[in-house]
Design brief:
- The protein is an all-alpha fold and about 190 residues long.
- It contains 6 helices and no strands.
- Helix 3 packs antiparallel against helix 4, helix 4 runs antiparallel to helix 5 and helix 5 packs antiparallel against helix 6.
- The N and C termini lie far apart (about 95 Å).
Length: about 190
């Protein structure tokens, strides 16, 4: 009875040992192929290999530098757009409110407070928005022009709130107009 014989521990051990020897024999038979040749570097190939490695490193560095340059350019463009949009939209509202105040003042309206408050608020709001948009990626000339607008807008708001005299008020207005023109010109140049 062959089935009963395989169930004994000795038979299982004999079958296992035979299987192991069969596997080892296959491995030994499969690994008998030998390759001829010398394990030396061909002297003419070494400089070519070194040049190839150097070129690969240089290409990788150039590619990395180009990607970083593109990233910086993208950050700068985003900063320019954000800051210039803040100036463009808020300064228009500030100048409109300021003009309403000046018109009321020039018309001799006794209660210019109804136009003074909105003008002060609009000027300070514009200064706050533009100031918050000034970031490191901006070109230095544009950042300086925007900062000048912020300072001029706050100065005019102070002149209105403190009821400065005509000469001081007109000087603050002239600086505000100049700073707006300069900042918008710098924005136009930065968009190109």
């Amino acid at each position: 009875m062959l089935i009963g014989w395989l169930s004994t521990p000795r038979a299982r051990l004999a079958a296992f040992t035979t299987g192991v020897f069969a596997v080892l024999a296959m491995i030994v038979v499969g690994c008998t192929n030998i390759t001829d040749g010398d394990a030396t570097v061909a002297q003419g190939d070494a400089p070519l290999y070194q040049a190839s490695v150097s070129a690969s490193i240089e290409e990788s560095a150039a590619s990395s530098s180009a990607r970083e340059s593109e990233r910086q350019s993208s950050l700068t463009q985003q900063a320019v757009h954000t800051a210039c949009e803040a100036l463009s939209s808020s300064s228009a509202d500030a100048i409109g409110a300021l003009n309403a105040y000046v018109d009321a003042f020039n018309a001799g309206v006794t209660d210019v407070g109804s136009t003074a408050g909105p003008a002060v608020d609009a000027l300070n709001h514009s200064a706050d928005l533009v100031s918050a948009s000034i970031t490191d990626p901006l070109p230095p000339e544009l950042g300086a022009a925007l900062t000048r607008w912020v300072d001029a807008a706050r100065a005019v708001a102070t002149a209105i709130a403190a009821n400065y005299g005509t000469a001081e008020f007109n000087s603050a207005i002239a600086d505000l107009n100049d700073s707006k023109t300069t900042a918008l010109d710098r924005c136009d140049a930065a968009y190109r």
